[in-house]
Amino acid sequence: MMLGLAVLVLIAAVGYLLFQSHTAKAGTETAAQAPKAPELYLPLDPAFVVNFQDQDSTRYLQVGVTVMTHDPNAVQAMKDSDPVIRNALVMLFSSQTYAGLSDTAGKKKLQTEALDAVRKIVADKIGKPDVDALYFTSFVMQ
User: Which contacts of 109-114 are long-range, i.e. CB under 8 A and separated by 24 or more positions?
Assistant: First the structure.
């Protein structure tokens, strides 16, 4: 009789643990399947046009920029900080060299630096850098 009771308790304990494991796993799957907020794009219009020195000549750079976030508060912060963002990006773009932007690696580096600059401004405004990406929608050097 004691043996039967011990087996019954053991079966109940295993059943309880399996149920808890299944419930926790189902909760994790539900959280993982929760819909992500939609992507919000904000074009920084008009396009940026800057000049920079390259050896003996003056060069021009025109860059179209669009930023992407999932946070409507970040969109509003970027709209409210448009002059600050534009100033930071103009300074960044005008400090470039023609040789540095002539290959894809240079453009990607500039894109990363521009994203970091925008994230810093948004973080100062709302307390978190909720900008997920920065895209060059046009890029013309002359």
Answer: 111/135, 111/136, 114/65, 114/89
Whether a cis peptide bond, with omega within 30° of 0, leads into 38 is: no
DSSP H helical ranges for 33-137: 72-80, 82-94, 98-101, 104-126
Question: Which residues in 21-49 are b (16+ Cβ under 10 Å) and which e?
Answer: eeeeeeeeeeeeeeeeeeeeebebeeebe
Burial of 101 (0-12, 13-18, 19+ CB in 10 A): buried
What type of residue is 72? P
As a whole number of angstroms, the distance between CA 57 and CA 128 comes to 41
Is the pLDDT at 8 greater than 80? The verdict is no
* Cα distance between residue 28 and residue 66, in whole Å: 34
Q: Tens digits of per-residue pLDDT, 103-138?
A: 999 999 999 999 999 999 999 999 999 999 999 999
pTM of the model: 0.74
The pairing of beta strand 57-69 with beta strand 40-54: antiparallel
